[in-house]
Amino acid sequence: MAEKIKILIVDDNESTREGTQRLLEYEDNIEIVGFAENGLEAISRVEEYQPHVVLMDINMPVMNGIEATQRLQQEAPRTKVIVVSVQDDAHYLKQAFRAGAVDFVAKPITSAELAQAIERAYNSIQAEPTPPSMPAPSQAWPGVQYPAPSAPEGHIVGVLGFKGGVGKTTLAVNIGVGLVQAGKKAVVVDTNLYFGDVGVFLNTHGQHTIIDLAHMASDPEQLEPQAVQSVLISHESGVKLLAAPKSPRESEPISAESVVNLLEYLKREFDYVIVDTSTTLDEVLDASIQVSERLVVVTTPTMPALKDTKILLSLLDVDATEKDKVILVLNQVDKSSRITADQIANYLKRPVAAQIPTDPSAVEAVNQGMALVTLDQRRVSSIRPLLSVVQLVRDAFEKESEEAAEQEAPRKRWW
Ligand SMILES: Nc1ncnc2c1ncn2[C@@H]1O[C@H](COP(=O)(O)OP(=O)(O)OP(=O)(O)O)[C@@H](O)[C@H]1O
Ligand SMILES: [Mg+2]
After folding, report:
1. What distance in angstroms lies between residue 352's CA and the mean position of ligand 1's atoms?
2. pLDDT in tens, 181-193
3. I need a labelling partner for 138 at 20 to 30 A (CA). Which of 174, 264, 330, 405 fits?
């Protein structure tokens, strides 16, 4: 039988510890090996029980969860920490990752979501050891210096959404193919390292993935044009694809520098680099957001998705000079949607740039490995709105490109 994932639950509140235990009691592959009431106790319990994953509360007496995470990173680097917060703790997110946490989950959380986060953390242990050329995340995180872009070059557009399944990949693929239809050279980069499915959407697979290039990209000088060419996959539409591994087992963590170097490199080769992202708040997402000049934020007109989008937008903290950076797209809109676009714009304090209807052809397109925008426009209702998103992306750069190219925005953390 496969090894069970050993978990240590750290929380000063007994009923919270029990609640977390109950959340996981039906997960066959997960075993709770122990509990601790504060950070200091957690450190000795980790030594004693050697858990794979620690679920760490933040505010605790004696030693808080952030400090304990930092200590564990040095003393037990094979043990991965997921910081579990209540909503008000969102501002700790940065400290948690800096301290070396592999994930940050906010309560309320479902059993399935928690189990998935645990599996991702566990898979990241399996993917180790990290090659020596790649600094460990905790070292890479705080002091990363991102290279400044050099002109003339293309543009990086990130496609984001906090909730799974809102349509990020659908948007990324269709924007990429739509740009190709408009005569642009475009690549879609799948940064969803563990569950990426751009390759599935386009039914194209190659031997290589973003992981191969990421190793090389830890030193930008090593990025050989020929090697990059051989890793990129061509789709019949003309769009190129940089795929994620087919299975989480083939994946491994990538440093922020590698992501930045890779995207900046592709930007010099393509008019547009479209970055499909995951919902995991890690340094890959952080780096993708930082280098993106525009962010297509996808949400659906449902309360859970809107709540998460509000959190995402507040974390993005796009300041006044960059307020056009976000292109808010409402996906899966249908007649039964009770919440109107106006209400959503009010709630999110941001205009809705496009509305994509719920379209049965979306699934059909995936099954055929085709982008929606290549189907018959008379039959497929989502094509026009999708093309309007493509146009918004183009307008952002192609209208006033001269001035914009010269004005280099200061880079900053996205939260
Ligand atoms: N407008 C739409 N109408 C109908 N189905 C849609 C629409 N947009 C997306 N879908 C379908 O919803 C599912 C989820 O979409 P998609 O994979 O693009 O979301 P995602 O945000 O990338 O998900 P994940 O978080 O898993 O990466 C897919 O099966 C897709 O075909
Ligand atoms: Mg996706």
Report:
1. 19
2. 999 999 999 999 9
3. 264
